[in-house]
Amino acid sequence: MSRTTGGWLVTGSGGMLGQDLLARLAAAGQDAAGLDRAALDITDPGAVREVLAAHAPAVVVNCAAWTAVDDAEAEEDQALAVNGTGPRVLAEACAAAGAVLIQVSTDYVFPGDARTPYAEDAPTGPHSAYGRTKLVGERAVLDTLPEAGYVVRTAWLYGAGGPNFVRTMIKLESVKDTLDVVDDQQGQPTWTGDLADRLVRLGLGALAGTAPPGIYHGTSGGGTTWCGFTREIFRLLGADPERVRPTTSEAFVRPAPRPSYSVLGHDGWKRAGIDPIRDWREALAESFPVLLKVERQKSVTGQ
After folding, report:
1. Which residue segment(s) compose the domain that 197 sits in?
2. Is residue 180 part of a domain?
């Protein structure tokens, strides 16, 4: 069933993904409004209803999230408010307004101990507070909006609009002779530009009635380790990849457990007639000049 085409509303628009999503919507000629954390508290039902009444969006994309994975271990209630309660509030408001909701989620909802890519319908089993809270948000959206709720899980995000692994490695390459980087965690580095593009396509498909509601995996094709990822960054910098030395997760113990395997399958996109995201190396090569420019400008200005 097709829906009336209308505008888009992006919550959490000040973040790395939100910025790229607004740019992709503008490039696609879509009317879109963005609200950052200061402009909208997604856990406030009254505020959310007021915003939806004012903007009357056809599609809402929730990029707002508590992403401080380690802090969530000690502050799970606060993380749950943003990652669980917030999506439920948005879903209830979208249900009342007749809007589509796309909820951005995470690979952390899985236990991270697989050996083959996780399918969209694979059993979940988060091992961290962050993963538990994000799973609550997923279920709230899918339960509240069975015909208009979409969950897009992603992982290992990087982009020009905020601090991330790629920009950190660019900086460290210039000041470190060698780097020890974890080589026992598998994942899919994903450019926010590519993910934003798929979110736009998915929303348009939802409006056209060609993209079934449910779960999609928004990660790049292929896979690597953090060490392999860093070596590719060094190669693009013209640096010797062998300066990046493999180590284990035991060398970097963190409060929240990291999944050892975060590779996701992408069969769900076939249902919507949308191609999955390309291989991670191709995306990194395309995005790298902008990331390098941003990081070097930051180094010069000291910001």
Report:
1. 8-163+189-221+261-278
2. no
Per-residue pLDDT of 245-258, as tens digits, reads 999 999 999 999 99
| Domain of residue 31, CATH code | 3.40.50.720
- Helix ranges restricted to H, 145-225: 165-173, 192-208
Q: Whole-model pTM above 0.90?
A: yes
Task: Measure the CA–CA gap between 212 and 192, rounded to whole angstroms.
Answer: 23
| DSSP string over 56-99 | --SEEEE------HHHHHH-HHHHHIIIIIHHHHHHHHHHHHT-
User: Which entry of 108, 118, 130, 150 is annotated as an active-site residue?
Assistant: 130
Look at residue 256 and tell me if it is in a domain.
no
How confident is the model over 179-188, as pLDDT tens digits?
A: 999 999 999 9
Residue 108 annotated in active site: no
* Total domains present in the chain: 1
Task: Report yes or no: 272 and 197 within 8 Å, Cβ to Cβ.
Answer: no
Read off the pLDDT of residues 3-30 as tens digits, 9 standing for 90 and up: 545 699 999 999 999 999 999 999 999 9
State how beta strands 59-62 and 224-225 pair: unpaired
Bridge partners, residue 217, by sequence: 153
Taking the CA atoms of 120, 143, 105 and 49 in sequence, report the sign of the dihedral they define. Answer: positive
- 204 belongs to a structural domain: yes
pLDDT tens for 109-165 read: 999 999 999 999 999 999 999 999 999 999 999 999 999 999 999 999 999 999 999
